[in-house]
């Protein structure tokens, strides 16, 4: 079974300096029908104006993954990390027992476009941690590149949840398959372009919740970039 979450049906918040699309209920967007999917709790697509951002704020007991599509984001936290995340880079934080951090667009003229994903951790009270990594484009072109996993396989970021996150950049007409083990689930998010998923059309910003399927067939209708979550 595949249930599509259309891009224009997501929650929308316009704060002037921030325009955000919420796949699941978040902040001022309340949606009891979309509270998450399996361990996925937040799937936000944010666009931040130059020189603006999120002041210091707390998180606890959440796995937070950030991926930059355009622009850059400057991160600072109470663990002593101060980094800039560039397009194509992933950031992961285990909020665990508690962290505080800030996120800003450091550019004076370029907007920031990113996805931020929250997953519920395998257990509460994990020691907080931070990591950041870039993955070679060649390794994700027309193939699924593992970028986050519970065991750090294939050089991926280590997340505290039984979830694998893959990224792929597809050229037009390219075809991918992904097998889903028994009693596991998947979520596909289209970051750019358009694809078909087991024959169903998905456009930029669309997501798809997958249950009781053994295999996914993904075909790029146009050049596309996708993120795939294999979930317990």
TrEMBL record:
Q: Which residues form the Quercetin 2,3-dioxygenase C-terminal cupin domain?
A: 146-231
KW Iron (keyword) present: yes
EC no.? 1.13.11.24
List the keywords (alphabetical). Answer: Dioxygenase, Iron, Metal-binding, Oxidoreductase
User: Has UniProt tagged this entry with the keyword Transmembrane?
Assistant: no
Q: Which GO terms describe its molecular function?
A: metal ion binding; quercetin 2,3-dioxygenase activity
Q: Where do the Pirin N-terminal domain residues begin and end? A: 10-119
In which residues is Fe cation bound?
57, 59, 101, 103
Group of enzyme by EC = oxidoreductase
According to the record, cofactor stoichiometry and binding are noted as: Binds 1 Fe cation per subunit.
Which co-factors does it depend on?
Fe cation
Task: List the InterPro entries.
Answer: Pirin (IPR012093), Pirin_N_dom (IPR003829), Quercetinase_C (IPR041602), RmlC-like_jellyroll (IPR014710), RmlC_Cupin_sf (IPR011051)
Family to which this protein belongs: Belongs to the pirin family.
> Per its record, how is this protein called by name?
Quercetin 2,3-dioxygenase
Source taxonomy lineage? Answer: Bacteria, Pseudomonadati, Planctomycetota, Planctomycetia, Planctomycetales
């Amino acid at each position: 079974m595949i249930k599509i979450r259309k891009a224009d049906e997501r929650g929308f918040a316009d704060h002037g300096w921030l325009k955000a699309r919420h796949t699941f209920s978040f902040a001022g967007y309340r949606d009891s029908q979309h509270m998450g999917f399996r361990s996925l709790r937040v799937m936000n697509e944010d666009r931040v104006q130059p020189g603006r951002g999120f002041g210091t704020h707390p998180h606890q007991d959440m796995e937070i993954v950030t991926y930059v599509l355009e622009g850059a984001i400057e991160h600072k936290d109470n663990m002593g990390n101060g980094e800039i995340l560039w397009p194509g880079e992933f950031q992961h934080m285990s909020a665990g027992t508690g962290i505080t951090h800030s996120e800003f667009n450091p550019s004076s003229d370029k907007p920031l476009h990113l996805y931020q994903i929250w997953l519920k951790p395998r257990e509460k009270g994990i020691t907080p941690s931070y990591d950041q990594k870039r993955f070679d484009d060649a390794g994700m072109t027309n193939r699924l590149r593992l970028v986050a996993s519970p065991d750090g396989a294939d050089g991926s970021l280590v997340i505290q949840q039984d979830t694998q996150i893959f990224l792929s950049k597809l050229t037009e007409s390219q075809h991918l398959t992904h097998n889903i083990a028994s009693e596991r689930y998947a979520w596909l998010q289209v970051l750019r372009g358009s694809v078909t998923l087991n024959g169903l059309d998905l456009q930029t910003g669309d997501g798809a919740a997958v249950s009781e399927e053994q295999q996914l067939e993904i075909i790029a209708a146009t050049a596309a970039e996708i993120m795939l979550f294999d979930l317990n």
